[in-house]
From TrEMBL:
Name the record gives this protein: Dienelactone hydrolase family protein
Keywords assigned: Hydrolase
InterPro entries: AB_hydrolase_fold, Dienelactn_hydro, Dienelactone_hydrolase-like
Domain Dienelactone hydrolase: 11-228
MF annotations from Gene Ontology: hydrolase activity
Source organism (scientific name): Kribbella lupini
Length: 231
């Protein structure tokens, strides 16, 4: 089981794998460091992978806030400030925590930031993005275009997209694929889940069979991808 730690002025959730083994930086969905992201971190640690989780809302999560409250905080989030926090955590993962290699995995808003971080930090061994929130039209508080920036990623990328994503039109996912597949280096693995909803990995949505089925396919694929790229 992991625990909360301080990394400079930041709070993070740390689940420790084997010494000097691989690491993963986890970037949560709207739930923040809620129960499910902690469970994923603990699962990775049980596989020997040290998992360090970014706290997007600074001690706010579904543990103590409603999703509507967290969404209001999301609308105030600054891209560059968030990327600076993620870079600080990656520095810690590769430095003080001794990870030999490290990748990044993100969900929804975290999937978008995984792409943005991967485009900027070529130390990353992989970029894994579940239903990344990357519509072509940016919000007023967003300054970086993840679809365009994806072309700068040098690491292998796995992106898992739900065909009924209400937040990201299929055309925007296709534009993301085109951007990723234009890269001169770094494999692209794209999973398309017909009928699945945005946020299908969230177990609160697994009462809908198409979401549960998509998760049952996508999560093992991601684990194998992470194992291979961080070995």
């Amino acid at each position: 089981m992991g625990d909360y730690v301080s990394v400079g002025s930041l709070t993070a959730y740390l689940a420790t794998g084997r010494a000097n083994g691989p690491g993963m930086l986890l970037l949560p969905m709207i739930t923040g460091i809620g129960e499910q992201i902690r469970d994923w971190a603990d699962e990775l640690a049980a596989r020997g992978i040290t998992a360090l989780t970014w706290d997007p809302f600074h001690r706010r999560s579904t543990d103590n806030s409603t999703v509507d409250e967290l969404h209001e905080l999301l609308l105030q989030m600054d891209d560059d400030a968030a990327l600076a926090e993620q870079t600080q955590l990656l520095d810690h993962l590769l430095g003080d925590l001794g990870a030999a290699k490290a990748g990044v995995a993100g969900w929804c808003l975290g999937g978008r930031f995984a792409i943005l971080l991967g485009a900027r930090d070529h130390r990353l061994a992989n970029v894994t993005a579940f239903h990344p929130t990357v519509p072509a039209e940016l919000r007023p508080n967003q300054t970086h275009d993840a679809i365009a920036d994806a072309a700068a990623i040098t690491a292998p990328v796995l992106v898992s997209y739900p065909g009924a994503d209400a937040a990201v039109p299929v055309a925007d996912f296709e534009a993301l694929q085109t951007s990723l597949q234009s890269r001169p280096t770094g494999a692209t693995v794209a999973l398309f889940h017909p009928g699945a909803d945005h946020g299908f990995t969230n177990r609160d949505r697994h009462d809908k069979p198409v979401n549960a089925d998509a998760y049952q396919l996508a999560w093992p694929q991601a684990l194998a991808f992470i194992d291979t790229t961080t070995a």
